[in-house]
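Q&A FORM
Asked by: J.P.
Topic: structure of dTDP-glucose 4,6-dehydratase

PROVIDED:
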Amino acid sequence: MSRSLLVTGAAGFIGANFVHYWRAQHPQDRLVAYDALTYAGNRANLASLEGSADFHFVHADICDHDRVLATLREFDVDTLVHFAAESHVDRSISGPDAFIETNVVGTHSLLKAARAHWLGGDAPRPHRFHHVSTDEVYGSLAPDAPGFHEQQKYEPNSPYSASKAASDHLVRAYHHTYGLQVTTSNCSNNYGPFHFPEKLIPLCLTNILRGLPLPVYGDGSNIRDWLYVEDHCRGIEKVLLQGVVGETYNIGGNNEWNNLAIVELLCEQVDARFAADPQLAQRFPDAPAARGATAHSLVQFVEDRAGHDWRYAIDAAKAGRELGYTPAESFESGLAKTIDWYLANEDWWRPLLVK
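REPLIED BY: S.T.
REPLY: Here is the structure written out as tokens.
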């Protein structure tokens, strides 16, 4: 049976990876990519799909309820996968309004349109609304505390995480109040291809190649659970195909690393690439390895940001037990794939860098 999927935020990092993954796994399905193309949305992420059968791109804002509803009707959408979100914590601290507008008001706009399309007729239409959220809604963990589980109390500590927590609650409410068929997944930190270069891994990777400082907050001891983006896409697929309506599933990578250790591993792997491939020194003459130095020499500790949660970790046991989910990549293997992708796609990331 073929499906018609609307993917919001489809030109962003995780959304684009999901669109490519779903097309490869389910070529018979229609894919409708919906994105406002704000600073982190890049239509080039989907360029290889443009013009292909049953792929459509809609340039629009999720806050535009009428446009969302018209899109659901035009393409007879039966599955909505909601990635669209403002997601950079630092930006939420300096400018929280956009996060409330997109993450709360935008999610509510989608829910209203989905309800009208799927539940507004004489009989409910088969459907699924899948909401993609974050582990940051749970707050911060102590050093020896177990990972976040699905019944964890919400304790968001930044405007970003608070806005995502609010959207989670709205999705739950539309299921319990109106009977909308929803699922939610809360994931740990993603990394991989198409990652916008303001985030830690792509920022440090592209800075190494340009010989720029590698900023590490505080003493670098903050810990995150890292999830290779294709493993995340695989987890969402399992929720869509096997998940129980109304349930939440945590999707994690079983990879806890502190920020400094991540930067150090990245430095080691990039230096190793330069040692193995002399052409890299010609392509990136400003990289430390091109002049006989180490990437680690670029590490620079900077003032910690406000409200910086110390540790996140996901307990993905429920997804493993009920859906058979397990990440395929270790952090080392996923990071190696990420570095290879950025080295092979300089023409993608170079125009996105802050001048």
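FOLLOW-UP: The radius of gyration is 20 Å.
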